[in-house]
Automatic annotation (TrEMBL):
Naturally occurring in which organism (per UniProt): Hucho hucho
Segments forming domain Peptidase S1: 21-193
InterPro entries: Peptidase_S1_PA (IPR009003), Peptidase_S1_PA_chymotrypsin (IPR043504), Peptidase_S1A (IPR001314), Serine_Proteases_S1 (IPR050127), Trypsin_dom (IPR001254), TRYPSIN_HIS (IPR018114)
Range of residues in the leader sequence: 1-15
GO molecular function: serine-type endopeptidase activity
SMART domains, per the entry: Tryp_SPc (SM00020)
Keyword Protein transport in annotation: no
Lineage of producing organism: Eukaryota, Metazoa, Chordata, Craniata, Vertebrata
Cellular component terms per the entry's GO annotation: extracellular space
Record-linked PROSITE patterns: TRYPSIN_DOM (PS50240), TRYPSIN_HIS (PS00134)
GO biological process: proteolysis
Protein name: trypsin
Xref: Pfam families: Trypsin
E.C. code: 3.4.21.4
Keywords for the protein's UniProt record, in alphabetical order: Disulfide bond, Hydrolase, Protease, Serine protease, Signal
Amino acid sequence: MISLVFILLIGAAFATEDDKIVGGYECKAYSQPHQVSLNSGYHFCGGSLVNENWVVSAAHCYKSRVEVRLGEHNIQVTEGSEQFISSSRVIRHPNYSSYNIDNDIMLIKLSKPATLNSYVQPVALPTSCAPAGTMCTVSGWGNTMSSTADKNKLQCLNIPILSYSDCNNSYPGMITNAMFCAGYLEGGKDSCQVLSTLTSIQWYHNDDFKLTFSVQLIQK
């Protein structure tokens, strides 16, 4: 059984598709082999491979059919590592709220199993929750606020987990008991554009654990 704990990033208030990394750096190529691109004629959200058959993403990225692109680094270049697999089912959480981004999770069933290799691997599920102050890494495409970063290449960003009190003070009345926050109160680094919104599902990592940017997966 996988339990789910949702996370709200400081600096994001409402959710739309086309999520971006702001203030990050280019990831080492293929260092995040769980990372997928959701495509509907264009890249619009990210996700993480859970196993050969399933991907987890954010409910605000919902489309009834999507193409899941695995093994990507530069999403505008054919690199020979990619796998393109269509969805057979897209399951959005029935209680997803676009108002406060509660239950912002979606599962995608692949129409055929992904082939696991050095470019495509399931994400490592955590065994415990990380405390406030833990530095984590989030990945995704589209650092549109930078004049030097290539938004088509996978970007990474280091941010801290915040305490519930800091989170609630920044978003009074918006934080549910299923959420926790990560980011910088002073801004400048985020997974979304200014006036844009919450990130797609991406994964932080810190040695012994990995957890998603918008949802934590804990193997029970």
